[in-house]
């Protein structure tokens, strides 16, 4: 679960309120026990969610509905595909993943870095590398050598004019303005 600390904290607070209200209800008034039981139920559901058992139960139900029905080879529900795995985002899973990453050898990291460098070299040059700075300034309607704030202001103004979502804009003009800005921003 993504927010397991927050949810667990909420369960602890609700549990504390339940205990306090139960004691007050036993000492002062049995009517407070009704309120304590309400907090007790809320505590149970929040803890049930924080422990991950709620998600597991839902995933098992979906998987059960998606199973092939008897010999008829018909799906009984719109469940997950075969390659789908339910998310397991508990603290223990994250800790196990951290340990697995720490056990990776230096050679595999080195190989991954080499592969990434090869991929970067193999990429085609971007459109912003193909135009000259002079051409980029002219696309934005600026004199060559304009300062960065002028470039930014001109870019914002041009984008408003040529954006494809406007009536007068089109996609090609928008891309040309964007690549001019990227060229001058580099």
Oligomer, anyone?
single chain
State the secondary-structure class. Answer: mainly alpha
Tell me, what's the shape? elongated
Helix and strand sequence: HHHEEHHHHHH
How far the N terminus sits from the C terminus, by CA atoms, comes to 40 Å
What portion of residues is helical? 55-70%
Rg is: 30 Å
How many strands, what sense, and barrel or not for the largest sheet? 2 strands, antiparallel
* Number of beta-strand segments: 2
What does this structure look like?
It is a single chain. The protein has a two-stranded antiparallel ribbon. Helix 1 (4-27) runs antiparallel to helix 2 (31-50), helix 7 (133-140) packs across helix 9 (171-185) and helix 8 (148-162) packs antiparallel against helix 9. The protein has 186 residues and is an all-alpha fold. A hairpin with a 4-residue loop joins strand 1 (68-69) and strand 2 (74-75). The protein is built from nine helices and two strands, in the order H-H-H-E-E-H-H-H-H-H-H.
């Amino acid at each position: 679960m993504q927010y397991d600390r927050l949810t667990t904290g909420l369960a602890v607070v609700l549990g504390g309120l339940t205990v306090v209200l139960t004691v007050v209800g036993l000492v002062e008034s049995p009517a407070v026990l009704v309120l304590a039981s309400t907090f007790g139920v809320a505590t149970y559901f929040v803890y049930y969610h924080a422990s991950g058992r709620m998600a597991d139960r839902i995933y098992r139900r979906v998987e059960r509905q998606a199973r092939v029905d008897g010999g008829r080879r018909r799906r009984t529900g719109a469940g997950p595909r075969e390659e789908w795995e339910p998310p397991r985002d508990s603290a223990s899973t994250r800790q196990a993943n951290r340990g697995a990453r720490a056990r990776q050898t230096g050679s595999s990291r080195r190989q991954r870095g080499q592969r990434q460098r090869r991929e970067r070299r193999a990429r085609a040059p971007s459109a912003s590398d193909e135009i000259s700075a002079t051409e980029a300034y002219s696309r934005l309607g600026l004199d060559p050598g304009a300062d960065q704030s002028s470039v930014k202001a001109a870019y914002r103004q041009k984008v408003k004019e040529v954006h494809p979502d406007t009536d007068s804009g089109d996609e090609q003009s928008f891309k040309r303005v964007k690549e001019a800005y990227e060229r001058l921003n580099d």
